[in-house]
Amino acid sequence: MIILILSGGKSRRMGRDKSSILRPDGGRQLDHLLELAREISSEIIVSTNDPTLNLPEGVTALPDAVPGEGPLAALASLAARSNDSALVIGGDLFLLDSPTLHHLVEHHDPTAAATCYANRIDARPEPLCTIYSAPSLAAASHALASGERCARHFLEALAPQILTLPNATALDNANTPDELAECFAKLQHGVTLKTLNVLYFAKLREARGLDEERVASLACTPAGLYAELRFRHRLPLDIDSLRVARNGDFTTWDQLLVDGDELVFIPPVAGG
Amino acid sequence: MFTIVTQPIDPAVLRQQALDPAAGAFCSFEGWVRNHHQGRDVHALDYEAYRSLAEKEGNRIVAEAKERFGILHAACQHRVGHLKVGELAVVVAVSAAHRDAAFDACRYLIDELKARVPIWKKEHFVDGESGWVRCDHCHDAAHHSHHPG
């Protein structure tokens, strides 16, 4: 089986290539993923459109046939050069660990079009820590041709085998600096279940349909908590437009939460 | 002193709180509910506040104004709840030894209160629609830090 690591490119919201980010231990994110991949297979390919990306001996770079089309283009490019199945790994999985990959490989049904994990919040299939059969990889180019750009839609259409994550947060990803800080906090401080009190005001109160709730969360920081709540309840406001208060006063998004904390996500204010 | 109130604001009470024999100047600002916003007819506003933090932040702003402008007193109230056109939403009352400080502090107070205090307003338009107003001149860092991709 081939391992395909999606190094992607420059992330708009992170302002840099996520696989080049240095982890709390000082190692490059891409090298962390390469190390995990080597436990599974010796045939490792990195999907990248960056010719300057530094790759170790024996690891192949695979540019997209059509750059800028996202993960499905990487799958299609792989299918064009190989007839093997592949384990596809997103470059921004900062919490991906060895047990998660081994569990996926061990429980993988070779007759399935794909084997993946259920998202820990909405239970939908996660497309970027997934084993795709060779025919499924080949189907990516057809999906692209028909206008599909969403890897999750593509995976759902394959009717994949869906596993439950052994470590719930292993596929939490990071699209913003605040979410990256949350991932790093989980790496450094561990993942524990906390019970938090959340107050909602104005637009968020209306969107959530209540003004206060107790929330069980695996988040370490307010940024992680808001990401969970926003995803679970489809809240309308981006974190960049909010401020946050903890236990009655303003705080920063990267402060560590403590069990029992009261959090308020503050929409843009408009007094006067 | 900054407080959130649910009943109609009486500006005379705030003026009373600013009285001081050392004061030679008094300046006040009243924010009224107006009947239009960005070309649309408004018939009422709903204000809500995260009360404890609103009063904490409001009182920080009052302390800043006293520190910056050397004023004697600042009394401010913001009303929450359902307000009709013409009603008072916010009143700032400032006394100082001289007029420059009173004018400057009054301006500072209303500007900072609008930008920083967790108060929100929902406009009810005459055509039946409604919507949350987004402060368009907030200057705190949270609104500048990074933009969604």
Ordered list of secondary-structure elements with their pairings:
The complex is a heterodimer of chains A (272) and B (149).
Chain A: E1 2-8, H1 29-38, E2 44-48, E3 60-62, H2 71-81, E4 86-90, H3 98-106, E5 114-118, E6 125-132, H4 134-145, H5 151-157, E7 161-163, H6 177-189, E8 194-199, H7 202-208, E9 212-217, H8 222-233, E10 243-246, E11 249-251, E12 262-266
Parallel strand pairs in A: 1-2, 1-4, 2-3, 5-7, 8-12
Antiparallel strand pairs in A: 4-6, 5-6, 8-9, 10-11, 10-12
Helix pairs in contact in A: 2-4, 6-8
Chain B: E1 2-5, H1 11-18, E2 25-32, E3 36-37, E4 40-49, H2 51-69, E5 73-79, E6 81-84, E7 88-96, H3 99-116, E8 119-125, E9 130-132
Parallel strand pairs in B: 1-5
Antiparallel strand pairs in B: 2-7, 3-4, 4-6, 4-8, 5-7, 8-9
Helix pairs in contact in B: 2-3
Summarize the structure.
The complex is a heterodimer of chains A (272) and B (149). With 272 residues, chain A is α/β, with parallel strands linked by helices.
Structural features:
heterodimer; A: 272 residues; alpha/beta; Spore Coat Polysaccharide Biosynthesis Protein SpsA, Chain A; Ubiquitin-like (UB roll); 2 domains; 7-stranded mixed sheet; 5-stranded mixed sheet; 22% strand; elongated; B: 149 residues; alpha+beta; Aldehyde Oxidoreductase, domain 3; 5-stranded antiparallel sheet; 4-stranded mixed sheet; 9 strands; disordered C terminus
